[in-house]
What we know:
The protein is mostly helical.
Amino acid sequence: MTLHRSSFKKVWGAPIALAVLTCAGLLSALLGAETWHWVSWLCLAIPLATGLGYWLRPRKRA
């Protein structure tokens, strides 16, 4: 079984992007002030909104 790059990106692309956004948001909140706090809010709101969107999405019945 071989794993192609396109399937790796398709499966892990979004979780890696959300993890990078979360780390950037936490670091900007800890290390910055003023404008960096707004960057922090934005970076942390995107993963939160994504998770809530999938959690609240209607489920398909089998």
